[in-house]
Amino acid sequence: MEFKSPDVGLWRETLLSYSSAIQNLGKPDLISLDDFYRKELPNLLHQRDPDPYITTAELSRLMEWKLARGKWRPRLLSFVSSLNDAVVRDASGKAFAALPDVSKAVSELTVLKGVGPATASAVLAAYAPDVAPFMSDEAMVTALGDSKDYSLKRYVAFVEKMQAKAKELSSPDEIFTPSDVERALWSCSAGAKVRASSTKADRVESEHLHKSKRKRKR
């Protein structure tokens, strides 16, 4: 699916395939982690309004989700898990208070060891999906052309693109958030990878059966 596509029905269909895309990755832990990130964590954060914050334990689970859905980098999880809880609460509280200024919000979070702009974006997206989308590799590639630059400047450009796309797709009857756009892009990319992997597996199995038949004929 191209980022420029104006087909609301296609975007809706791709977004609705998100849960099945998560399941098709074959990572059992990711299913429960995704439920935590998309459902439980947002509720916890908003229960703390008007002064929301995230705890070290919650940030660690968020990091597990991020790494499970993307590239596994256990060192980052180790850094985050060892953070002082009071420091995490203070930094995240300042970040949430800075919204909708995503640049300032990300800067408040990246003072934490192990938390870069991508992880910071995941924290912000859990609280304000209508403002700050998660900076996933898949969405970055589709929206900006690559996922090599994880700087704050690049994230701000990413946010602008995702907010503009969400506004374009939305109508009085149906609202798309920047986070909806990110999940749709991730679903499309993940689905393509699963299909490619399945096709490759089928081809290998077919070649194996063909070779076995040839051996029996001899």
Automatic annotation (TrEMBL):
Superkingdom, taxonomy of origin: Eukaryota
Which residue ranges have biased composition labelled Basic and acidic residues?
200-209
Region listing for Disordered, in residue ranges: 197-218
Q: Which PANTHER family does this UniProt record tie to the protein?
A: AMUN, ISOFORM A (PTHR21521)
This one is known as DNA binding protein
